[in-house]
Write a structure and sequence with these properties.
Strand order of the largest sheet: 1-4-5-6-7-8-9-10-11-12-13-14
Number of strands: 14
Strand content: over 45%
Number of domains: 1
Structural class: mainly beta
Shape: globular
Length: 293
């Protein structure tokens, strides 16, 4: 987040829920009139997933995006499934609060355009794509829009425990290259783990967490620095069909001074609270057209 020199980024992440139902056919006919079996109907290779969320705060890699206030978001994603993987294009929107009173650019929302390719090989999976962050209605002639590419890998150790690794890269974080000279390159890497400890019918319970580090190289002409920092989160979630309640704690190794001088939040002192550790509750809904059939 910034005014002419200060910005705050946000990441919108989308989630996927796919269920294919293959029809079963059986007929008991007299032997002398036995009919041929009806051919199975192949599921459509096309699908659409969609969902939304409300949360007590919008946190992106340890930094609040909503001024510590509640936030809401929604997404829709088109998918094409082939023998070689799934191709997808999505659109997501999130409410944010970058208050102009502190010199920030105060966009009306964050809109994420994203797309990529996913594939599974038994217990292993990969997701490769890109996301474009668009911030409409910014003040002070600021343009914070930027592109980030990503790679996500996962491995299901068994039906209850899975691990993953993620890598994100942007050549010009928050578009500083066109807002005052220079650029800010960023690489974020993390590892994740999830364990399902309870399953009963349509109800599930799981614990999960993430440990990541953000390497940021500041080549922009701005009066702030970008300390590399470590981010983590840990939480518990309870799901019933397409609805999930997530209770999660977010933290970083940044102190108050780091946050006050951080390029994302470098401005008046009130912004320094945006980097504090936070407990966040979220209620999410995720489904797909194939799951509703």
């Amino acid at each position: 987040m910034r005014g002419k020199t200060n910005k705050l980024a946000i990441f919108g992440a989308a989630s996927l829920a796919l269920t294919f139902a293959a029809p079963a056919f059986a007929a008991d006919m007299p032997v002398y009139t036995k009919a041929p079996a009806a051919p199975a109907v192949a599921p459509s290779p096309y699908d659409v997933s969609f969902g939304g969320a409300i949360s007590t705060d919008y946190n992106f890699r340890g930094v609040s995006q909503s001024n510590r206030d509640p936030s809401a978001g929604a997404y829709i994603e088109g998918q094409y499934n082939s023998p070689y993987g799934q191709w997808y294009l999505g659109l997501a929107g999130w409410s944010i609060n970058w208050p102009s009173g502190y010199g920030f650019s105060d966009p009306s929302a964050e809109i994420d355009f994203y797309g990529g390719w996913r594939h599974e090989w038994g217990p292993a999976s990969v997701d490769i794509g890109a996301i474009y962050y668009y911030y409409p209605g910014e003040l002070f002639n600021v343009d914070s829009d930027f592109l980030e590419v990503y790679w996500k890998g996962g491995y299901a150790v068994n039906d209850k425990f899975s691990v993953g690794a993620n890598l994100f890269y942007t050549p010009d974080l928050l578009n500083y290259g066109s807002n005052g000279g220079g650029n800010v390159r960023g690489i974020y890497g993390s590892v994740t783990a999830s364990y399902t400890f309870w399953e009963q019918g349509d109800y599930t319970g799981a614990i999960s967490g993430e440990l990541g580090h953000w390497w940021i190289k500041n080549n922009a002409v701005v009066f702030a620095y970008d300390p590399d920092y470590t981010y983590w989160n840990a939480g518990i979630s309870f799901a019933y069909k397409a609805i999930t309640l997530d209770l999660r704690y977010h933290g970083t190794d940044m102190n108050r001074s780091d946050c006050a001088n951080f390029l994302f939040t470098s401005t008046a002192n009130p912004a320094s609270g945006w980097c504090k550790d936070a407990f966040i509750a979220s209620l999410k809904f995720d489904t797909s057209l194939s799951a509703l059939k």
